[in-house]
């Protein structure tokens, strides 16, 4: 494939500030790197369908169907945006990726192995970061939002799955329960450290 860039994934609960942090990280890294900031569900056909038709209580599909749709969106997103950017040597920052499927659809009762299997064709990220905020805090922050995946119990189960991958060393945990500038500084420093350790992978 001739991948020359670096693929970084930012994960976290709804309301954890991961989207803000992904933006702040992109802004900081843009000074030194050619960056693509993107997200899942993506803006492609499948991602738009998910956003518009699947995320609200009255529109929920069976969890298996959700997992398949997120996996389909991931493949579409990979071909349309992620892979071309990596081939151009970009540093790709993706707000949510496979760990979101493992955490959300996994905590919804699906086997993590099956979720991995249906995502086996998607590119593996180089680094995956989990912005960790206690479920009680994200619930406070989410009062106004309508997304369906946000009750305290659900958030706790989702966080458990994320922490499982932190323990395995697949996700790097950043404490997100601090002022956003402090979190952003640490995240930036961590990513620079990771980039340094991966020196030679990145062309520019
Ligand atoms: P989110 O990034 O929180 O969207 P927004 O920026 O609009 O707040 O993602 C929307 C929801 O999709 C979120 O509740 C988590 C869920 N989701 C999954 O359940 N599985 C997945 O694989 C992905 C990518 C997202």
Residues in β-strands, percent: 5-15%
The DSSP helix count reads 8
Give the overall average pLDDT.
Answer: 92
Helix content: 40-55%
Which hetero compounds are present in the coordinates?
thymidine-5'-diphosphate
Task: Outline the low-pLDDT stretches.
Answer: none
CATH top level class name:
Alpha Beta
Task: Report on the architecture of this protein.
The chain has 204 residues and is α/β, with parallel strands linked by helices. It has a single domain (6-196), classed as Rossmann fold (3-Layer(aba) Sandwich). The chain has helices at residues 18-29, 45-53, 63-87, 98-107, 112-118, 135-141, 152-167, 180-197; strands spanning 6-12, 35-39, 91-95, 127-132, 172-175. A 5-stranded parallel beta sheet has the order 2-3-1-4-5, with helices on both faces. The longest helix is centred in the middle third of the chain and has 25 residues, at 63-87. The radius of gyration is 16 Å and the shape is globular. The mean pLDDT is 92. Thymidine-5'-diphosphate binds next to α4.
């Amino acid at each position: 494939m001739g991948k020359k860039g670096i693929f970084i994934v930012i994960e976290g609960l709804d309301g954890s500030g991961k989207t803000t942090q992904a933006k702040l990280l992109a802004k900081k890294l843009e000074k030194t790197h050619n960056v693509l900031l993107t997200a899942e569900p993506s803006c492609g056909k499948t991602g738009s369908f998910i956003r518009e038709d699947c995320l609200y209580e009255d529109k929920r599909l069976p969890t298996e169907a959700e997992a398949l749709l997120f996996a389909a969106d991931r493949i579409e997103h990979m071909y349309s945006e992620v892979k071309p950017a990596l081939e151009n040597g970009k540093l790709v920052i993706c707000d949510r990726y496979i760990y979101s499927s493992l955490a959300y659809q996994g905590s919804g009762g699906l086997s993590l192995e099956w979720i991995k299997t249906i995502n086996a064709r998607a590119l593996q990220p180089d680094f995956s970061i989990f912005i960790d905020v206690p479920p009680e805090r994200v619930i406070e922050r989410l009062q106004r939002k309508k997304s369906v995946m946000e009750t305290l119990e659900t958030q706790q189960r989702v966080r458990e799955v994320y922490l499982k991958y932190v323990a395995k060393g697949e996700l790097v945990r950043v404490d997100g329960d601090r002022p956003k500038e402090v979190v952003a500084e640490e995240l930036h420093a961590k990513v620079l450290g990771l980039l340094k350790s991966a020196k030679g992978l990145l062309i520019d």
